[in-house]
Design goal:
Elements (H helix, E strand, L loop, with lengths): L25 E10 L2 E2 L1 H10 L4 E3 L12 E3 L6 H4 L10 H17 L11 E6 L5 H13 L9 H4 L4 H10 L5 E4 L5 H14 L4 E8 L4 H10 L24 E2 L1 E9 H6 L6 E10 L7 H12 L8 E3 L6 H15 L5 E3 L10 H17 L1 E2 L15 E2 L5 E2 L5 E8 L3 E8 L5
Parallel strand pairs: 4-8, 5-6, 5-7, 11-12, 11-16, 12-14
Antiparallel strand pairs: 1-2, 1-9, 1-10, 3-4, 7-9, 10-17, 13-15, 16-17
Length: 425
């Protein structure tokens, strides 16, 4: 059933409001963002609604000898300005970004971890590459000076789990802690695991994804993958669903969220941004993409049908075959041009595990403000991708209540999340 043929609005089944009796629901009460087009949630969201890109020439290392020199760097993020000096020797840039995002998310949720049960709060985040920059420094020291010059912190600072460990230590979150590695899909996968913890009785979870691979070592890996756009102009470096799509840009950052039991949050007066209503993950087989299945499973988990979805935050790979697969999945679910679709990550680049987490943050703010942010870069949608892609300017949707977020990670990972406005009727 497409948007054009769905049942009249009064007959539409009403999702259960957040805080109603029933299974514990995971409500997002805090958001922390560090993105190439804005440090801090409000700064980033204003930039997204204005269509302001964070893509530009690489400055974090000398990229003059590389065939691709466009990326998304977080503006004005000087590590020393945000992290205590005692932590600088033992942390990678990605971990430092995560610490800043976690602090903002907890502050936004207006919750003090000290007031929580000793083991009632935890951290589950996602990372694609761990501490890539820290690892690069260690290898450089090993090759040029010898093993005695490699930092003792190399044993943990470059690992994928360094960020959740440092967040838990700083905020005394002594409950479950772990990390997820599924590339771009990781942010949603971490969110799904944190939601499960809330359902199992945890009172609060910090979750999401952050990645930073803008160093020579990380860049070599991105180039070897062969999916970066060779464009020399930032405006042309990431154009999903365009007939001229030729790859994507890479950025650093992401988003971390605070999840709470909706009923407990309501008791302390928190309304939150939205409920994580459904999650699902699938894995592609040989010549058998399963992105559509991930979306269907997430909707079933939420107890909703495709006609309930008001907007889709697409993965938007900007690679022709991958774009066709996603377009076909969306058309099978909603019909051609059946639902507004957007890819705001065109303004930041693909952020590894941070990408889908940032899309979730964008979807939650869209639900709150009843507006769909635009996709930049893509001027005209390819004829073989019949999607209602929101471009040029934000689109106001007064009845925006349910969002579907999709993500795909290299190697076959697919993840989907269904988000619902807190008081969706």
């Amino acid at each position: 059933m497409t948007k054009a043929t769905q049942a009249p609005e009064p007959a539409r089944p009403a999702p259960t409001p957040a805080g109603a009796e029933g299974p514990r629901q995971a409500l997002v009460t805090g958001i922390g963002v560090a993105a190439p087009n804005g440090l801090g949630t409000r700064t980033w969201w204003d930039a997204v609604l204005c269509g302001r890109t964070g893509l530009g020439p690489i400055t974090r290392f000398d990229a003059s000898g590389y065939p691709v020199r466009i990326a998304g760097e977080i503006p004005g993020f000087v590590d020393e300005d945000h992290i205590p000096s005692r932590l600088l020797p033992s942390t990678d840039r990605g971990t430092r970004i995560a610490l800043v995002a976690a602090e903002e998310a907890l502050r936004d949720a207006n919750v003090s971890p000290a007031d929580l049960p000793a083991y009632g709060a935890g951290v589950i985040t996602a990372s694609s590459a761990g501490g890539a920059e820290f690892g690069e420094r260690g290898l450089a020291a090993l090759w040029s000076k010898g093993a005695q010059h490699v930092s003792a912190y190399q044993s943990f600072a470059s690992f994928h789990a360094a960020a959740p460990a440092q967040i838990s230590i700083r905020h005394r979150l002594r409950g479950h802690g772990s990390t997820v590695v599924s590339e771009q899909a990781g942010g949603i996968d971490a969110l799904a695991r944190a939601r499960r913890r809330i359902r199992d009785g945890a009172c609060l979870m910090v979750t999401g994804g952050i990645d930073s691979t803008l160093c020579a070592w990380g860049w070599a890996a991105h180039l070897a993958d062969g999916r970066l756009s060779p464009a020399t102009e930032p405006a042309r470096a990431y154009r999903p669903f365009a007939a001229t799509a030729d790859g994507h840009a890479v950025g650093e950052g992401g988003a971390l969220l605070v999840l709470e039991d909706a009923r407990a949050a309501a008791r302390r007066g928190a309304t939150g941004y939205g409920v994580i209503a459904g999650c699902a993950a699938t894995f592609d087989g040989p010549d058998r993409p399963t992105l559509r299945q991930a979306a269907e499973l997430a909707l079933a988990d939420a107890g909703l049908a495709p006609e309930h979805v008001d907007v889709v935050f697409a993965d938007g790979a900007a690679e022709r075959r991958a774009d066709l697969v996603e377009s076909q999945a969306l058309c099978a679910l909603f019909g051609p041009y059946g639902v507004p679709v957007t890819v705001p990550k065109t303004m930041t680049g693909r952020l590894g595990a941070g990408g889908s987490a940032l899309d979730v943050a964008a979807a939650l703010l869209a639900l709150r403000e009843k507006v769909v942010p635009p996709t930049t870069g893509t001027g005209r949608v390819a004829d073989d991708c019949p999607l209602d892609l929101v471009t040029g300017a934000p689109r106001e949707l007064p009845r925006l209540r349910v969002a579907l977020v999709l993500a795909r990670g290299r190697g076959g990972f697919n993840s989907a999340a269904v988000l619902r406005a807190p008081q969706a009727e």
